[in-house]
Fold each of these.
Amino acid sequence: MKEILRGKDIRPAKGKLGVLIPGIGAVTTTLLAGVLSARKGLARPLGSVTQMGKIRLGKRTENRMIPVKELVPIADLNDIVFGGWDIFTDSAYQAAMKAQVLDPRHIDPVKDELSSIVPMTAVFDKNYVKKLDGENVKKGKNKMDLAEQLMKDIENFKKLHNIDRVVMCWAGSTEAYHQSTKIHSDIKQFEEAMKNNDPAVTPSQVYAYAALKMKIPYINGAPHLTTDCPALLDLANENNVPVCGKDFKTGQTLMKTILAPGFQARLLGVSGWFSTNILGNRDGEVLDDPESFKSKEVSKLGVLDTILKPDVYPELYKNLYHKIRINYYPPRGDNKESWDNIDIFGWMDYPMQIKINFLCRDSILAAPVMLDLILFTDLAQRAGMHGIQEWLSFYFKSPMVKEGLYPENDLFVQRDKMENTLRYMAKEELIHHTGLDYYYDVEEK
């Protein structure tokens, strides 16, 4: 008997979608310029699954491939209103020109729209981002006061632009590495810590708390700890709010999640994987601080273990030496360059090498990731989904998972999970690629 899928009843994407972003820097302004240009038919949203992706439905013999945005009710780009916070006063236009990711000829056609996006005063603590200092910073008697100021900002933004619903996405700098403490164990202790100005409450957690209290989905685009603690996860579940993170998967780690599944599938051993990067944008400057780099390093290091599974294949991967370096090099700007040296071995233990030199554009790769996460998280909210959205792991270096589970980092497993979740939401049959109908005359799922 054919399985009956309940699917999800999804509220339509009516009205305006407010997108509030802590951090109006290179990635954000690249996203803004791209979306605004796409609205005018001046640019294609390449790399975006929500805008250009197609998904197979039913059997292969049916040849049903439809756009993702026709399968599920994705918000229209014309209905998005952007806003945000930054420690610098530059408008989105000024920030885009300073970031030098895009050529001025691609910024100028949307200059007026970008100029109208002026950052609100930000929550900031130099102890967590030591390499930056800005003047556009909130002052308050404690961190609860700062969170309440953020909530007032959100309310004013909604009223000013007649916003129907909101998504918040962190695109600010990587905070110094830290782990959950006792104050993160439940929401009462967390709120008390905010009132007491506890240093264990980070700026990003002040933003996340404000969003979740207002039942606004929160996306963490950086590697540091934010919503992945019991206090904020409980708040998200209590208020039926989706959260996801962490750390946008773009350049070098994207390549690892493409290559490593191939090595593991073909049972090729890996003895060493050395990775190094140079970049000269604000992210590179921040990561020049050892504590901020540690947050990034932890995020990037965990990828290979969960894909290669050294506990299952100790003879192939137990002794894998994995090293990562990131170096700040101002002349390169946002055009990051990464090198990977991979030492592998195969039949009869003969050694081989693979070398990769990826000259990528960090913000160009991150912008469509950020757009998809915003639109898919809004979709999840309208579908009544809450808590960790593991089906969006496809976009993250260090995906959030429920306690007791390991993250799935295989890009292709992540893609299948995301596509099947979309099929489920649309009340379509899931696809498992068994092909059993060919052999046993049964219906392929």
Amino acid sequence: MRKYLNSILPVLFHFGTVLMFICALATACTQRPDDSEFIRDMYEKCLYEDYDFLEQHCSRSLLAKLSEAYDYEGDGYAVWEFRSGAQDGPSNEHAVISIEDEGDGWYRYKAIDMGISFTKKIKISHEGGAIMIEDIADDHKLIAPLPSGLDVDDLKDCTVPAAFTSDDFRWMGGNLRMTVYSKDLYDAVEISQMQVGDTLLYTGEPMVIESIEEAHGGLDINGGLENNGCCLAGYEGGTYVARNWDDHATYTELGKAELALADDFVIIDCGEFPTDPVDTIRTGQKLYLESLKDSYRSFFSLNTLVTIENGVITEINRIWIP
């Protein structure tokens, strides 16, 4: 019996060693972090905004890339590279829609950022059981209007498109309540690089670009306005402006504001018809507004500019539009 045990003990030992190795391998596989779950948590929990998270889970080359793309004073990372890149959107929705494994460590994740759909490509590797992000790239670009640079809660020295009615004047307090807008302008360089498959943020809604044609002195996107597309035209300062019907620009609502009226604020007002003379009202502004026809007591972003100096409204200028 002893001889028999001595003969099988090495076999049992070898078998046990193999079994332990298989169990360890299976455990390692089951414990390996799930790439899709990691990507979903990274985006939906906004972990990419945490510099500690980035430095723990991003490769050195990606950290250098994010640092180089950071265009503010001081040191930092361009965390917006994980998002759509839009400054604003139609809602607060922020979620991953889908994650596709493209092989060789690359994944494509489609997500929603402030209600705007976008797609990114992300490369994942594994070091010592930890997930590392090797690279992040645009699958297609999102082309959004340039930031207005305006803070509706702190309007100091600027001229803004605005909308209000004669009822929004508070004559007792000398204030005007209005909705502030910005004209939708796009960077000319981005427009020159625009291609089919990119997404254009137009009138606050994402438009996937299916065609681009030179027409009407500008660019027709997706067949132009006649086919539920849009039109872009060259504008001043290296920008393009989005055009609507009757060649009107498009605008994005920034929010509500209530500002004081200067004691000597001026109303420059067009007539009801294009040939009517322009009125310049320096006194009796309340009486002037109350004497207007009901249909003419509303001011819109398309035709109204409000000039603000040191936080006080100094001029309201309404121009005639078709």
Amino acid sequence: MNFNNKKGFTIVEVSILFVIFLIVAFLVVPLSLDNSKQEKDISRWRGVQNDFQNIIYSVNIQKSDDNFVFADAFNLVMNGEVQADIDPYKITYYNGALPDEEYKFNDFKYTNGKATVAYKIYETPQSDLYGVMMYDVNGFMGPNTWGKDVFGYNIYSDRLEPFCRQDSLQKQKQDCSRTGTGLCCSNYYLIGGNIN
């Protein structure tokens, strides 16, 4: 028996394996980091639900005032929740498109919780819908995308309701994918939907 004829890996073979491992790592690591960040942002979104219900409660306490105007009461309560005005920044839909006029905001405010909030109160309520609100859980830091770090509410006289709450689970799931707007993620993640 001749044990001296054993062959090991050559430097070229080791180098090729090393390059293959690096390529796989570069492909997998960013995806897992992106999902981890998005999970953290979703957790923040879930965590602020009670705070927002307290806002609408504070607005409704003022209804006993003879001069009650919903928009004025809402603005007053929201002013207590923010630190400062900030310059508007671009927010995109999940699919990369720019939002419709309904979901574009101009009056951005930095909250005490280091998030960004913006809202529109309609001059004339549409049925019982008084306006819309967006909440960017990590402030003006990226990705500034609906359904990733930006979520929203419909503002009613007696409640704040996440976008798409009345829509089917299938529609919410589809909208919360790479081809959707991401608006429905506002409710989809609250009811336990998974990142697609």
